[in-house]
Amino acid sequence: MTATARRGRPGHSLESLLDVAVAVFNERGYDATSMDELAGRLGITKSAIYHHVPSKVELLRLALDRALDGLFAVTEEPAATTGRAIDRLEHVVRGSVRVLVGELPFVTLLLRVRGNSEVEQAALKRRREFDRIVTDLVAAAEDEGDVRQDVDPAVTSRLLFGTVNSLTEWYRPDGGLSADALADALVATTFDGLRTRPRRSAVSRA
């Protein structure tokens, strides 16, 4: 007789449990959500939840890691590691929009983290590392002459990803706007102000 994998109740995999948990965390707040409430929302007992995870904080860790892993994966793609910095920066922005659209509830939860626990502090540390990667790309693009140099790279990075992150406040998957179309619009409106332009000569202005 072959060994079989341990399974939870039918219809309640770790994936479905995590989806519901994140929805409730976003709706009520992580601290205000009890395991009893999660069990009630799922229609199962708490013991069925504990079959998959040892605690509520583990659900939070898994959810935050899912959002962060997606963002860091973008920075490791070939288009984000080779070529001119401005093109790599654009790739990271476009990829981040795709992650946000694909993992909207998880990214929303990540952006609401305030560092109230070790898990949240670890997530914030990883967010700062992601911010540093973006800031370094902006600085490199400045050095290469493709991005205007009159704004601090850290400020540019915050403004750029402040725009990306604001999508969680209004974007709706059923609104008919694809991730690519959303990324196109965001890049068109933000990178136009970032890029340097060659000065027109006195003759050309005449």
Automatic annotation (TrEMBL):
Lineage: superkingdom: Bacteria
Stored Pfam families: TetR_C_24 (PF17932), TetR_N (PF00440)
Domain HTH tetR-type: 11-71
InterPro entries in the record: Homeodomain-like_sf, HTH-type_TetR-like_transc_reg, HTH_TetR, KstR2_TetR_C, Tet_transcr_reg_TetR-rel_C_sf
Keyword Transcription: yes
Alphabetically ordered keywords of this record: DNA-binding, Transcription, Transcription regulation
UniProt-recorded Gene Ontology molecular function terms: DNA-binding transcription factor activity; transcription cis-regulatory region binding
Classification via SUPFAM superfamilies: Homeodomain-like, Tetracyclin repressor-like, C-terminal domain
Ranges annotated as DNA-binding: 34-53
Listed name of the protein: AcrR family transcriptional regulator
The organism of origin for this protein: Petropleomorpha daqingensis
